[in-house]
């Protein structure tokens, strides 16, 4: 057995692992046999090692200790912090490390020993003034006795495509029944328009071929990678014929393309799809046609090669960049267990990430994971092989495997296609953080996932929204803590966008994804959402032939109740929302509504000038999924020189004046200056307010007018749900009880009950009758006599407005 040099200074002696913590997890029966005392608790044990103080960026104290004592961990720790590339702000930093043991299940030890405590590695944090970063070193061992004894995985191999890894991946691929899966797939028989024929050896020039004449099955791999900022090889009109006839010279291929070809040859795959080469990049019609089929390209690939460790096509993803340290290990409980233990630095910037979830960080800490196009490529791939800096991941469906022996089905890094709205909103929250070299690619890069959703259910899609949940979907809000531009900048960009992406009501409209995030309002967790508009239409003008691609203009035409803001918006403190400011609107000194704006506000209030509230929907007091709704009633911790009644507000208005009513006709007769192209358009047809709206639980609640009253069953036979009532209405009509005839919440089925109100904050655009969406509001009903909730809009008339 090879031994390693364990020269350690006095401070770093604690790095040597003491496994006597396991003694509390091993029990003996009277006959001498051993067993595990499994408590079922996820108990975490931290054993402090030491603390270090040093001075960035050179960290001279760690360097001096290594030079004087030969300490291998001082050298390794310094290299790890330098490797993290964090730009520290303070003149000195502190590093605190501990051994981490975690009770995450029973693992077999030596002989009949079992236990619940497993070694998770070295964890800690780095403090830089007020900033704190997490730090983690994962353990591994190729010694079977040590890995079983400590409950750790094997050490990742230094070469990505070593014999062991190829055999491991090949076995996983062979266990997949590709033939039957393809035959059951409605997309069976699809081939990309073009493929690269890479031949059977690595000496042949890859050649572009057309698959139009192919009749038999073709197995191909698809490449998912980062283009990067540097110029790269692409197929253009001028080179298309050459690449098709003579092939592409090997010396012109970038490192990522060469690596992908090597992967294909290793696994016996002759054909490869790379977007830069299989799509004619300077042919707009070819680009649009091929990008609309990209989701099918990745879905039908034998497997997708995901180059996570490359940030451009000029960086190899097969050359691993592991940062490991080998230590000697000798069990202090059983002297027969000894060998080599490996520590591998896993990163610095993630504070509070549980060690056993560090594999997720191997995905997130890559440029690949931040790019917009790779989102769809990963989502649509049934099988994928991920190349990270330190290990291979294999995924089929939602099941992950790694070369070191870890696997997971319960936890996955991505959410696969499922035809539910909650899945769509979860997906959008992740997609919204992706970055694009060209912001105009936002909608094209999402169109494949849209088509997949449409294949599951009959629905209409427009600018990121779905007809069956259009009103709730409009209730998103910006994460303003990440923004710098104020109200004037937002309105200027909406009126004269430097690059038009989407209408203001779309959550993809503000700036390029990645610039700042969004959240969907808590209305998604509320019970029994009901439409409060007379009608709603939405349509967009596509820039090309793809109805889900780039957009030239878009309109949401809504007939609903509108009132002007009654007071300036007063900022309130709230411990729940930390990513955006919360404001309150008051009428005659009483709470009327709370709202969130689409721009950050410096100060304690914002003028209500030109701001109006458009009522979209309402919810009852019922809890959704057993979770109480969040109330923001009568917050008193306002700041600034204005009192809580708003008397100091020069813009207070006691009358509920309304926005001027639009006189526009039907969509076909509209004349919008923003519409550069009349056809083709995608239209979200009239929203029927009686149609069901899908709840977060997957059930569907009937919306609209009194369903129980229609059936003649109101108050007939009730089942208790909860006891909350409004005392100004008969309890039999307003209690949260279920009617035994129709099964609906009685409070939803009584039209006169006061409900929580939800809607948009709008601002006039340049053209009369047109508005921008600039925020979201909720008005919580607050018992008898209150002016809030849907009662806030009792005196308002229905108006037709266009939101652009």
List the helices and strands and how they pair.
Blueprint: E1 26-28, E2 34-36, E3 44-54, H1 60-69, H2 72-83, E4 93-102, E5 107-108, E6 114-115, E7 118-128, E8 131-140, H3 144-150, H4 163-174, H5 178-184, E9 194-197, E10 207-210, E11 220-224, H6 237-245, H7 255-266, E12 271-273, H8 275-278, H9 284-291, H10 294-299, E13 303-307, E14 324-330, E15 338-347, H11 358-364, H12 372-380, E16 383-387, E17 392-396, E18 399-402, E19 407-408, H13 421-431, H14 442-456, E20 461-462, E21 465-466, H15 470-473, E22 476-478, H16 487-495, E23 518-520, E24 530-531, E25 535-542, E26 551-564, E27 569-572, E28 582-587, E29 590-597, E30 605-606, E31 612-619, E32 682-684, E33 693-694, E34 700-701, H17 707-711, E35 718-722, H18 731-734, E36 736-739, E37 756-764, E38 770-779, E39 798-803
Parallel strand pairs: 11-12, 11-13, 13-16, 38-39
Antiparallel strand pairs: 1-2, 3-4, 4-7, 5-6, 7-8, 8-15, 9-10, 9-12, 14-15, 16-17, 17-18, 18-19, 20-21, 22-23, 24-31, 25-26, 25-32, 26-31, 26-39, 27-28, 27-30, 28-29, 29-38, 31-37, 33-34, 35-36, 37-38
Protein name: Heterokaryon incompatibility domain-containing protein
Organism: Clonostachys chloroleuca
Biased composition (Basic and acidic residues): 632-642, 652-669
